[in-house]
Amino acid sequence: MQPAEKIREFISKNLAVYDEGAVFGDDDNIFALGFVDSPFAIQLICFIEEEFQIKVADDDLDIENFTTVNRVVEFVRGKKGL
Amino acid sequence: MTRAKEIKCVVWDLDGTLWDGVLAEMDSVTLKPGVKEVIRTLDARGILHSIASRNDYDDAMHKLTEFGLDGYFLYPRIGWNAKSVAIAKLCSDLNIQTDAIMFIDDDPIERDEVKSEHPDVTCLDASQYNTLPAHPRLNPRFVTEDARQRRLMYLADTKRKQDEDSYEGPKKEFLASLKMQFIISQAKDEDLRRAEELTARTNQLNTTGRTYSYDDLRTFISSPKHRLLVCEMNDKYGSYGKIGLALIEIAEDRFHLRLFLMSCRVMSRGVGTVLLSYIMQEAKKAKKRLKADFRNTGRNRMMHITFAFANFRATESDDSGNIVLENDLSVIQGYPSYIDVQVR
User: Fold this and answer.
1) Cβ distance of B170 and A45 shorter than 8 Å
2) Gap between the Cα atoms of A1 and B277, Å rounded
């Protein structure tokens, strides 16, 4: 599975989305998709760290890195130096 | 002023510790004199009890029921595993750190085994059991209503978790089925003991780790330059009690969030984000900027993540891990439909 697919799957599975059957694109803002609460945020950070073997540093904790699937993919690529 | 942390849970061995004798080897064992009172006394102070014992589970529980003590122990670990493993599992079940555990056992080998895995656990010989009520770390300065109810709240939570684990529908549907109510109010005099307790007991979901005394907090509620918010939560299983606190300093141009914390009891419910949203709305209404303090305590990364996902950005930092964040209030999430938020 490609990173984008993995991330999309994780988000759709773990976010309490407003509309269960919702299909969302890689550039759709996840905040518009459901309520982004702290347990979800924490799970997402842990998922990224474990799945892609990177460390999310304090300085990386900026919402801009996590608002869409593509942003997260870009962030992971940047971290891995790809 | 480094006061040793309060013990949150006492873990008991059974044979030779809670009772005289070895259950597997004899027909009758007898409780140590006065041990029941020790347990009740600590329970009434909001201190939890658990068990780490090498015994047959059913036999031991049967005996505890006979003694009228079965309801006092949360997550009893009775089996044949190492006690250090039992304690690690207990910490994760109760969501507390090993330094908040006291372990009491008559066998020095067991105490050493626990100590070698968890150096932070306070280990005591069984002969000391009568001294527990006087132990400084088992004497919280105040015993609040929340503390008295603590064990029952944990029991309700166990039921909640079982139901959650066995729920198979979508997450949102489960959350809606809980009928959560989240109540935000200005702290009143009668809330302050619990507020003080929250600042002392909450480590993980705490933005600065600062503790405030009853008197400090009392000053804030009468100060026009401060707002102290307290949050309460309940759902269909019962009350979680008072579980959140926020201290806002009101300056000329800004709200400054000095303290923001949530009890671990509601960690999985996302209500921290709800309270942040409320504070952001209030700042916007008052046409003020919103800043917040954060200090990395080594345990509170979750709060940093919570801030970040609520659109807070670091604007200043120093060498000792203190950060000031600011929120431009451009994006404020509404409340989720599955939580009934009330402001009183």
Assistant:
1) no
2) 36
DSSP state of B80: S
- CATH number for the domain spanning A66: value is 1.10.1200.10
> Are the Cβ atoms of A40 and B170 closer than 8 angstroms?
no
Range of the domain at A17: 3-80
The total number of structural domains that make up chain A: 1
A46 interface with B at CB cutoff 8 Å: no
pTM for this model (two decimals): 0.77
Which residue intervals of B131-261 are DSSP H helices?
145-148, 150-166, 171-177, 192-201, 214-222
Please list the pLDDT of chain B residue by residue as tens digits (344 residues): 445 788 999 999 999 999 999 999 987 899 999 999 999 999 999 999 999 999 999 999 999 999 999 999 999 999 999 999 999 999 998 888 999 999 999 999 999 999 999 999 999 999 999 999 999 999 988 888 888 888 988 888 888 888 988 988 888 888 899 999 999 999 999 999 999 989 988 988 999 999 999 999 999 999 999 999 999 999 999 889 999 999 999 999 999 999 999 998 888 888 999 999 999 999 999 999 999 999 999 999 999 999 999 999 999 998 888 999 999 999 999 999 999 999 99
Q: Where are the alpha helices (DSSP H) in B81-187?
A: 83-94, 108-117, 145-148, 150-166, 171-177
Q: Is B62 on the interface with A (CB under 8 A)?
A: no
CB-CB neighbors (< 8 A) of A62 in chain B: 308, 313
Partner residue opposite A41 with nearest CB, options B267, B269, B306: B306
Q: Is B4 on the interface with A (CB under 8 A)?
A: no
* DSSP code at position B3: P
* Cβ–Cβ below 8 Å for B267 and A39: yes
Smallest Cα distance from A29 to chain B, Å: 12
